[in-house]
Amino acid sequence: MSAPQAEAVVDLDAYRDNLAALAECAPDAALMAVVKADGYGHGMAECARAAREAGASWLGVATPDEALRLRSSGDEGPLLCWLASPGADFAAVIQAGVQVTASSVAQLEEILAAAPSRVPLQLKVDTGLSRNGAFGDEWPRLVEAAGRAQAAGRIELTGVWSHFACADEPDHPANDAQEKAFADALDVVTAAGLEPGLRHLCNSAGTIARPSAHLDLVRVGISSYGLAPAKTMTVDVPLRPVMTLRGRLAAVKRVPAGTSVSYGHTFTTDRETTLGLVPLGYAEGVPRVASNRAEAAFAGQRVPQVGIVCMDQIVVDLGDLPAERGDVVTLFGPGDDGEPSAQDWADAADTITYEVVTRIGGRTVRTYRGAR
């Protein structure tokens, strides 16, 4: 079989090594590998298997549908999901042995209505991110309702958790405020006569930079894929980017100076040069906003992406480098051969690495290295 024309190479050995390094950051806490959003674009099922092999005792996904897809792939270990709108199929998720999260009294009632018997679940409190989780007076009401449900044998409280807003800025005052708010929230739980189970607050950034918040479990997402939680954050952990995105040249042409490229003619050559057509476009997740700003790698050199990023393809200016149809162009990778990083593409698109890797899909073929 011929090589894919658009390919994301996923290094599962690097992924396992990253998880091991992150586990060393929080040696007294259990590790949850977050594989939501199709493993941040890397492949949920494959990364989940590798995470279990690396010793991750928990996996985390956002939605019930993700949890069910993960179970259908064969995963049977501890799994938590936390983002569900009214009408979610909690019955199927509970039957699949997935632990769910209640973020309000109403949501707890939905879970109880779907549970045929005692169900393990966790409670989420909003400590300052202002997204999901019980906020303000809703928190003691949720704890009280959970206490009644547990006393009636309907639930088993297995965890209480929240999420940092600014942990990728270690000196931000919100971090101390959220830690205190979480401690106060736990006091409400114990005052109600409940054991909180697993207490967890840390995301990737908190795991790396905030040992005081490691508690019983840490949740690692972006860092497990080898990317820093923020460009400005110092990460003293040996992480290696897991994804390499590349394509094989579909066309090569020598053009004279004054040749305009792609829609709108936003780029015009200033010299005779070679243009290469790479079959990766915004349908595959290549950010259109990075047009004329990003670089790729070819034959060991950085080359500019030129013209507007199209739905199916981009154009790179290869200069005088010898090139043939089928040659490989790398958009980003770990940098071993001087290729751009996901951070470079994030900078070109004025976004974050999370978005760069998570959106990769479309007709891109994932190739896995290090599968066991």
Automatic annotation (TrEMBL):
Catalytic activity: L-alanine = D-alanine
GO terms, biological process: D-alanine biosynthetic process; peptidoglycan biosynthetic process
Active-site residues, record numbering mapped to chain: K36, Y263
Residue ranges the record marks as coiled coil: none
Keyword terms, alphabetized: Isomerase, Pyridoxal phosphate
Known EC number: 5.1.1.1
Cross-referenced InterPro entries: Ala_racemase, Ala_racemase/Decarboxylase_C, Ala_racemase_C, Ala_racemase_N, Ala_racemase_pyridoxalP-BS, PLP-binding_barrel
GO CC terms: cytosol
Ranges for domain Alanine racemase C-terminal: 242-369
Chain positions with N6-(pyridoxal phosphate)lysine modification: K36
CC cofactor: pyridoxal 5'-phosphate
Pfam families noted in UniProt: Ala_racemase_C (PF00842), Ala_racemase_N (PF01168)
SUPFAM superfamilies, per the entry: Alanine racemase C-terminal domain-like, PLP-binding barrel
Binding, substrate: R131, M311
Root EC class: isomerase
Keyword Isomerase: yes
Pathway: Amino-acid biosynthesis; D-alanine biosynthesis; D-alanine from L-alanine: step 1/1
An example molecular function term from Gene Ontology annotations: alanine racemase activity
Domain of life: Bacteria
Function description: Catalyzes the interconversion of L-alanine and D-alanine. May also act on other amino acids.
HAMAP family: Ala_racemase
Family per similarity comment: Belongs to the alanine racemase family.
The protein's name: Alanine racemase
Species per Swiss-Prot/TrEMBL record: Aeromicrobium terrae
Taxonomic lineage from the root: Bacteria, Bacillati, Actinomycetota, Actinomycetes, Propionibacteriales
